[in-house]
Amino acid sequence: MSWGLQNRLSRFVRPRTGHTVMLAVDHGYFLGPTSRLEKPKETIMPLVPYADTVMLTRGVLRKCIDAATDVPVVLRVSGGTSIVGPDLSNEGLITTVDDALRLNACGVALSIFVGTSHEHQTLLNLAKLVDEGEEKGMPVVAVTAVGKELGKRDARYLSLCCRIAAEIGAHIVKTYYCDDFEKVVESCPSPIVVAGGPKIPEKKALELTADSMQAGAIGVDMGRNIWQSDNPIAMIKAVRAIVHNDVNTKEAWGVYEENAKPRRKKRK
To answer: Angle of helix 202-214 relative to helix 249-259, nearest 10 degrees?
Structure first.
């Protein structure tokens, strides 16, 4: 790796632990104003101090994030489809590495859709992005997305996706947690971060984080399970405690409860 590429990676994969808490707020690029992300700035800015990096689009970065904010950014650079379109896997590159450099990003991220009708083009998108990233010192995060055609999240399928991403040259691979996740990690030469996925109860999300770390992930890229929580700051603090301080789920739940806002009593 070039010095610049290593330096950018070290900005969001913390050298002290080798781990990362990524805050995913890029959902609007295909979902639009999804619940609790209708006003991106109001959702994102209170959480920024607790994230190792924020993953978002260039539009939201330019319009909603204060330029004086000292947080590493990973730019979502693939897109071109929406939730109401016929095929989510039909993505292209929507942001250049040059623009990522202008925005002082520390990484770029795109989705690959292995096993879908657009597998070929999304893998070529990854290859092109890796070429540009290596040339210009920009880390590439490959996201093993699952299109409408696929419901698979088992170790065999995810191992295939992650290995292909690593073989093409992705510096980090983002994927889903599954049973036998150790096999996915062991067969992927690149470091893996685990996606938070759809909103689940807070305790379940903390269990997901702990299980992912114990299986060999270097961190999580969590979105809805943080900012759709009733206590998002408490949630991200609890996730950080697992990822960077190696606490167990019970201890992390204590962190959550300690920082959560007290529930209002219902009037009789």
So the answer is: 140
